[in-house]
């Protein structure tokens, strides 16, 4: 009779597991790649000033377009409420927006999925643009940049990504599994309120011409930031895909 042999147990690897430096959802990497590609394309030295002016006119958001009958102009009014969010005026502009995008877009994208994230981008971009147009109706200045969308993602994150009110502490990587707070519930969270107060204070400084980060020579559309934030904070429930109950129960606590 053969002797029974117990299955051999492989020794555990004592080396720590490597964690990717940029563990971002694919749709966020695609967003960053698109912004960088557009910025690189816009800064090719071969463009003439005439061509650049045409590009900015064709793809930037201009409030004056909506002060005139749409039938008497081209179709730029149709796509510019979205395409302006892909354009950036300088390296500091795109770097600043990209960094904040990586922080706040990742948990939102993990929670609502790729398709809803793309729809969220389109609608929050338009909401930011028309908030700007409402305050500067008929103005002929150009609005560009993803700051309005980033602000909307910040507002959406306030509804779930901060520490839950029941005392659980989770990492930012697992924040998308938190339960969604109601609007009033979010405003009862000291963490959320403190963040909103600091965010409003920063935009108030910008409104008075005090720029803390970035190129102070470039005007900042603080009103578009507020429009985007309100869109994300107030309307996030329309895009939310509540995590499954078993996923919520499986969240480990950070010690």
TrEMBL record:
Gene3D superfamilies: Rhomboid-like. GO terms for biological process: proteolysis. The keyword NAD does not apply. It is a multi-pass membrane protein. It is found in: Membrane. GO terms for cellular component: membrane. Its main location: membrane. GO terms for molecular function: serine-type endopeptidase activity. Residues 78-238 form the Peptidase S54 rhomboid domain. Keywords: Hydrolase, Membrane, Protease, Transmembrane, Transmembrane helix. The chain crosses the membrane at residues 24-44, 88-106, 118-137, 143-162, 192-214, 220-239. InterPro entries: Peptidase_S54_rhomboid_dom, Rhomboid-like_sf, Rhomboid_protease_S54. Pfam families: Rhomboid. Belongs to the peptidase S54 family. This is Membrane associated rhomboid family serine protease. It comes from Rhizobium lusitanum.
């Amino acid at each position: 009779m053969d002797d029974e042999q117990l299955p051999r147990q492989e020794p555990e690897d004592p080396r720590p597991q490597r964690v990717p430096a940029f563990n971002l959802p694919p749709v966020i990497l695609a967003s960053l790649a698109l912004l960088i590609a557009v910025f690189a394309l816009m800064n090719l030295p071969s463009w003439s000033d005439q061509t650049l002016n045409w590009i900015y006119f064709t793809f930037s958001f201009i409030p004056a377009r909506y002060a005139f009958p749409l039938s008497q102009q081209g179709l730029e009014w149709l796509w510019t409420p979205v395409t302006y969010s892909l354009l950036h005026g300088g390296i500091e502009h795109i770097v600043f927006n990209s960094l904040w995008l990586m922080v706040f877009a990742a948990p939102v994208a993990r929670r609502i999925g790729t398709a809803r994230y793309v729809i969220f981008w389109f609608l929050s971009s338009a909401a930011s643009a028309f908030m700007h147009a409402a305050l500067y109706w008929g103005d002929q200045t150009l609005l560009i940049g993803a700051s309005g969308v980033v602000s909307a993602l910040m507002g959406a994150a306030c509804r779930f990504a901060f520490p839950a009110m029941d005392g659980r502490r989770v990492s930012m990587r697992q924040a998308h599994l938190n339960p969604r707070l109601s609007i009033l519930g979010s405003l009862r969270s000291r963490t959320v309120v403190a963040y909103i107060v600091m965010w409003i204070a920063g935009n108030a400084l910008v409104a008075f011409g005090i720029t803390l980060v970035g190129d102070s020579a470039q005007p900042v559309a603080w009103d578009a930031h507020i429009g985007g934030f309100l869109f994300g904070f107030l309307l996030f429930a329309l895009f939310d895909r509540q995590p499954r109950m078993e996923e919520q129960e499986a969240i480990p606590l950070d010690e």
